[in-house]
Amino acid sequence: MGSCEKEQTLMKFDGPVIVGAGPSGIAVAACLKENGVPSIVLERSNCIASLWQHKTYDRLKLHLPKQFCELPLFGYPKKFPKYPTKKEFVSYMEDYANHFEIRPKFNQSVVSAEFDLKNGVWRVTTQDSVYESRWLVVATGENAEAVMPEIQGIEKFEGVVRHTSEYKNGCEFENKRVLVVGCGNSGMEVSLDLCRCKASPFIVVRNSVHVLPREMFGFATFGIAITLLKWLPLRVVDKLILFMANLTFGKTDKLGLRRPKTGPLELKNATGKTPVLDTGALSLIKSGNIKVVEQGVREVTKKGAKFMDGQELAFDSIVLATGYRSNVPFWLKGSDFFTEEGMPKMPFPNGWKRKNGLYTVGFTRRGLLGTTCDALKIAKDVTDQWRSMTCTSKHEYRSK
Ligand SMILES: Cc1cc2nc3c(=O)[nH]c(=O)nc-3n(C[C@H](O)[C@H](O)[C@H](O)COP(=O)(O)OP(=O)(O)OC[C@H]3O[C@@H](n4cnc5c(N)ncnc54)[C@H](O)[C@@H]3O)c2cc1C
Ligand SMILES: *[C@@H]1O[C@H](CO)[C@@H](O)[C@H](O)[C@H]1NC(C)=O
Ligand SMILES: *[C@@H]1O[C@H](CO)[C@@H](O)[C@H](O)[C@H]1NC(C)=O
Ligand SMILES: *[C@@H]1O[C@H](CO)[C@@H](O)[C@H](O)[C@H]1NC(C)=O
């Protein structure tokens, strides 16, 4: 240490500092730009929407129809399909950033951010710079870090172990027996992808899971739910959706996919757990191409896994579809605004603003719709403050 420590450049900034150049950070910067408020976006990676560009599988498409995944002020091209591919989504993000001339600073990994009470500014530190601003917008996402479960013995496993954030496609798993741990949307879609690549996936379904058809009678299930919720209580909508899911799929219990006692929307509202929207995995479970293991993994061995009920199966590879978590607690200092899990303590729609010019965008468990909602509110709030500040006070701050 000491001798190789580099000098850090200090940059004072009139507008907000936004941490994260995913859809959320870019959306806030765009809305501010539209109002004439400058901002600076700091991104640890080397591109915008890095989650989508670097950490998702090739087969990924938007889970919801595009009209539910639009960022503010600038929509999808008409020619895009109903469920844009990952490539299309990334190109939308690039067009969006270009349209509003948002140029993030890449390779800026925020390691700490702290409010300086004396000077009334946020001090945001990256690996080589310090930024100061009156406003801090946290846009690092619910999916900042891969969750790696602690499974006994996993270090002894002789095959490949891969988190879904590093899974691109099933090519390398051809003719392999693959244990997929986790049965959310990613686990189901990776299992489907493995099948199509002639691998043999086994998906662990330890607890219960709601699998719903992505569409019913040609309408997106998500859209149907939103429409019905305007008229009916949540529990009634849950009953209707489960009734229609049953019409489409039949009983899923006997496939090893037990449904939770709580309905899908109620569960989502209470815990944030998203139902699986089926894109083809279910029929492969029915046909036995994807095998369901209704047991938690007790232990991984050199060549396979032992399950809670004692059965032992051989596997060549393991894919961890165990999700992601926020990293806010690691770098945001002295804030009691976030839970230990790095989510705002105030639930949606009230989680976007905190005292001292602190904002959060995209921590709603409501995907890009939630992002849009937050971004518009943040931009309005900051713009109002920006406009009410006189020119002199701005300059005063700058010359400090
Ligand atoms: C596989 C998958 C599919 C999804 N499909 C949909 C869908 O169809 N519809 C939908 O609405 N939502 C979907 N989502 C939800 C997803 O949360 C959003 O799509 C969106 O990517 C969230 O945007 P964000 O900007 O909040 O977070 P992110 O896209 O994760 O962007 C956060 C950015 O912050 C950067 N960052 C993190 N920490 C730091 C740091 N300390 N310093 C600097 N930069 C940092 C990251 O590198 C990243 O670029 C999906 C998520 C996943 C994982
Ligand atoms: C990112 O920053 C680090 C140190 O701040 C530097 O060593 C590295 O070369 C940079 N990477 C790129 C791709 O610019
Ligand atoms: C689901 O559908 C089957 C027929 O396919 C029916 O026997 C069963 O009662 C239905 N269950 C529910 C909960 O609607
Ligand atoms: C949704 O969750 C909140 C708490 O997170 C709760 O107050 C509310 O009653 C729930 N709504 C429904 C309809 O269950």
Question: What do you see in this structure?
Answer:
The structure is a single chain. The chain is α/β, with parallel strands linked by helices. It folds into 2 domains: about 10-145 and about 325-400, FAD/NAD(P)-binding domain, CATH 3.50.50; about 145-325, FAD/NAD(P)-binding domain (3-Layer(bba) Sandwich), CATH 3.50.50.60. About 30% of the residues lie in helices and about 20% in strands. The protein has helices spanning about 25-35, 50-55, 85-100, 185-195, 220-230, 235-250, 265-270, 280-285, 330, 365-390, 390-400, and strands spanning about 10, 15-20, 40, 110-115, 120-125, 130-135, 135-140, 145, 160-165, 175-180, 200-205, 210-215, 215, 220, 275-280, 290-295, 295-300, 305, 310-315, 315-320, 325, 355, 360. The strands form 7 sheets. Strands 3-2-7-23-22 form a 5-stranded mixed β-sheet, covered by helices on one side. A 5-stranded parallel β-sheet has the order 9-20-10-11-16, with helices on one face. It has a 4-stranded mixed β-sheet with strand order 1-6-5-4, with no helix packed on it. α5 (about 220-230) packs antiparallel against α6. The protein starts with 8 loop residues before the first strand and ends with a helix. The chain binds flavin-adenine dinucleotide and 2-acetamido-2-deoxy-beta-D-glucopyranose (3 copies). Flavin-adenine dinucleotide binds near residues 43, 49 and 139.
